[in-house]
User: Fold these one by one.
Assistant:
Number 1:
Amino acid sequence: MKLIGMLSDVVSALFKRPATTKYPYVKTDPPERYRAKLAYTASNCTGCMQCVRDCPTRTIKIIVVDRKTKQFVMTYNIGECVYCKQCVYNCKFDALHMTNKMWESAAGSKGGFQMYYGKKEYIDRILAETTNPGAQAAVSEEKQS
Ligand code: SF4
Ligand code: SF4
C-alpha cells in the first residue's frame, strides 16, 4: 500500500512545475524592503557626521570637499556593511536610504566593494589620489523608497 502511494507521488511530481527557480538563469526581484545598497542624496547632506559615528562597522566616510557650500563625497564598503540601517534611521536630513539594489555583489578584491557617492568631478579627484582600481562610483543617487 505504501509503495503504491509513493509511486503515485512520484508520477504526479513528474507533471508538476518545480518549486525552485532556475537561478542564476532566471532572476526574480528581491522584496521591496530587502536591505542592500545604500542611496545617498548629496543635496540633503549637511556633513553632520552622525552616520559616521553610528555605523557599527565604521565603513561610512564623509569626505568634505567644501563645507561652506555643503559639498561632500560619501563612501562606504558594501562588503563591510551589515545592513543594520542604523545610518538611515539616524540621518536627520533624509540623505541616506536603503535600497534593494545590488544585492548580488561579487568582486575580486575588497576594493571592488568600495562605493563612492557625490559629484563625479570630486570622486574622480579622490580616486586619482587613492590606489583603489576596483572602486565603484555613484554620482549623487537621488532618494529611492
Ligand atoms: S548622510 Fe546624514 S548623517 Fe551622514 S553626514 Fe550627511 S546629513 Fe549627516
Ligand atoms: S547599514 Fe549599518 S553597517 Fe551598513 S553603512 Fe549603514 S550603519 Fe554602517
Number 2:
Amino acid sequence: MLLKGYKFTVGMCLADTDDIGDVLPYLNATFRGCMYNHNEQVLTLKKDGRQITFRPKEIAITKLENENKAREILDWLKNLINKTYDNHKNIKPKLDSWLILTPLSLSGSLPGEKCKDCSGKDCYGFAQKLIVGEVNIVQCKPLFTSEFREKRKKVLGLLEQAGYNVPGESF
Ligand code: SF4
C-alpha cells in the first residue's frame, strides 16, 4: 500500500499524504483528460465539477461542501491511488498531458454537412455531445465516406490523443 492515510483541512481541501509522486504517471495514464507536468510532478484532473490536483505529498480538491464530502472523495482517491500503484506494472506510464478537446476545435474538423442526422443540431452540437460521451463518432455517417477520408483521419487522431476510444481500421 503506497498511501496509508491523510490529514486535511476543508475549504479548498488540502490533504497531506505519503509520497505519491511515483504513481502520478500511472494515474495520468488511467484518467483521460488529465493535465500533467512530469518534471514538476503535478497532475490535475476534473471530476464532477471539481478540480483535483496531486503533488507528491499533497492533494488539493476544490468545491467541497463539507467535511463528509472531503472524506468521501479522499477515501475514493486513496483507494484509487493504491489500486493503481499495486497494478502499475500492467500500466504504461503517460508522461505528458492528454489533449483537451473543445467543441470548437473538434467541430472544425467534422464534415460540416449540416445533415442533422447525428443527434446534434449541427457539427458543433455533435462535437459538444461527443466530448461528454453522449454520442459516438460513428454516428457522423458522412465522416466515414471516402469523400471525408482526410477529415476522418484528423478527427480520429484528435480523439485518440484526447483518450477516447476510436473505431479501428475497418472504418
Ligand atoms: S452527421 Fe456529421 S457532418 Fe452531419 S451534422 Fe452531424 S457531425 Fe456534422
